[in-house]
Each structure stands twice: as structure tokens, then as C-alpha cells.
Design goal:
With 244 residues, this protein is α+β, with helices and mostly antiparallel strands. It is 41% helix and 11% strand. It is built from nine helices and six strands. Helix 7 packs across helix 8 (198-209). The N and C termini lie far apart (46 Å).
Length: 244
């Protein structure tokens, strides 16, 4: 009887150890599963891109850069690089307001990561990916949707000023909010509305809502990457950080 109890206890300990320690290395793998890289043929067949806009070589190179950016996003979550970058910034700097730029490493349909814009202190506008249209939702809901697993993070980059943020948010709301006829897709044309993708909406909100002098011009015709979005908005800096 004693021997059977010892064997049962040993099996229980081994099983528990397997469950516990087997889940520790979850960070990179789980986040990466949330990112979908469409190959050229698939992106074309789904209507995400047009062969007239991007060659296979351009798209393949873009996707390679995206995967590198994604790994960088995971590394950033380890905080060393991010804390070094923002060591002079005490977070949070302030509360959320209209025009703030949201970037997360969870998501990605064709591009790595995801971006959105605040319409006010509690409402987000974004397009989630292939098959979706631009929608509004509460920021708390956005957080629940995108901070699902260890390794997920959300960075908030502040609007350059309250006035510019209000103008960008007003343009984004009027142009995109809950417009079911607008589909997800990518093209070099940053002046068009349909199709669109997550970081294009934010860029356009400042370019068209505030003025072309409020943004830096992209140095290629490839899609604007969410991870680099804040570098295109003049005067935008980190104000908040959320992690899982």
C-alpha cells in the first residue's frame, strides 16, 4: 500500500512538473503564432495587394523585414532596449487623449504588429485585418483583445499636441469610423481611402487631418510598418506602456 502511494505521488509530481515547466517558455512562440505572413501569391489572391503595386521580390523583402521587426518587438518586451530608449521618460506621462497612436505586437495580417488611433480618451479606431472594416471600440476592450498572452505589449505614443490630436482624430472618425464599405488591403497610394490598413489610417489622419508638414514622408512605396509608425508622426513620443 505504501509503495503504491509513493508511486502515485511520484507520478503526480512528474505530471505537475511537466505542466508547470512546460509552459514557461511561452513568450516568443505564443506571440509569433498570432502573426500571419501572407506569401505573395496568397496576398494577391486574397486581394490584399495588387501585382500592379508590388512585385514578388518587393513583397518578399518586405515580409523578411517584417519578421525581423517582429523579433525586435519580442526583444523590446524584455525591456532592456525599451528602457534604454525611454530611460528619461517616467511612464505614464499622461492619460489618453484624441490622436494618440496605439501600437501593439499582437496582430498582423500582411504587416507585423498592429496600430490604431484614439478618437478620444477612451475610444479606439482600427481595422483589425483581412476581411474586416474600420471599427471603433473602447480602449479597455482593445486591451483585452490584444493583451492576451505573455509577451504581448501595447505602446501608446502621444499626439504632438492636443490641438493636432483632435484634428487627426476628427478626420479619422469622419473618414473611416464603422464604414462597412471600406475593405482591408495595401497599396502605395497613401491618398486613397479604400482599401486601407491599420497604420495607413493613422498616418493619413495626421497627413490629411493636421497637414502634410505634420508627418515625414515614407522612403519607399511599401506599406507603413506599425512598429515604425511613430517615427513618421512629428513630435510623437512614448507616453504609456501596457504589458501582459
Amino acid at each position: 500500500m505504501f509503495k503504491k502511494c509513493c508511486i502515485s505521488l511520484l507520478l503526480f509530481i512528474l505530471t505537475f512538473a511537466g505542466i508547470t515547466f512546460g509552459n514557461n517558455n511561452v513568450n516568443a512562440e505564443e506571440v509569433q503564432n498570432d502573426n500571419i505572413y501572407f506569401n505573395y501569391e496568397e496576398a494577391v489572391s486574397k486581394g490584399i495587394i495588387s501585382p500592379a503595386d508590388y512585385t514578388k521580390a518587393e513583397w518578399d523583402n518586405f515580409q523578411t523585414n517584417q519578421k525581423q521587426a517582429f523579433q525586435s518587438g519580442i526583444d523590446t518586451q524584455n525591456q532592456d532596449e525599451f528602457v534604454s530608449y525611454s530611460r528619461k521618460v517616467v511612464l505614464p506621462v499622461r492619460g489618453l487623449r484624441a490622436g494618440d497612436i496605439i501600437v501593439t505586437n499582437n496582430g498582423g495580417y500582411g504587416v507585423t504588429g498592429h496600430a490604431a488611433i484614439m478618437l478620444n480618451s477612451h475610444t479606439v479606431l482600427h481595422i483589425s485585418g483581412f476581411g474586416a472594416y474600420p471599427k471603433t471600440l473602447e480602449f479597455n476592450t482593445f486591451k483585452r483583445n490584444y493583451l492576451k498572452k505573455r509577451g504581448h505589449w501595447i505602446h501608446v505614443y502621444g499626439s504632438p499636441s492636443k490641438d493636432k490630436g483632435l484634428k487627426a482624430a476628427a478626420w479619422a472618425k469622419k473618414t473611416y469610423a464603422n464604414k462597412t464599405n471600406i475593405k482591408y488591403g495595401m497599396s502605395p497610394a497613401l491618398g486613397t481611402i479604400n482599401p486601407t490598413y491599420c497604420s495607413k489610417i493613422v498616418y493619413q489622419a495626421y497627413y490629411s487631418g493636421v497637414g502634410k508638414t505634420s508627418v515625414y514622408k515614407p522612403n519607399s512605396n511599401l506599406p507603413i510598418e506599425p512598429y515604425k509608425l511613430n517615427t513618421y508622426i512629428k513630435g510623437s513620443g512614448i507616453i504609456q506602456l501596457y504589458t501582459k
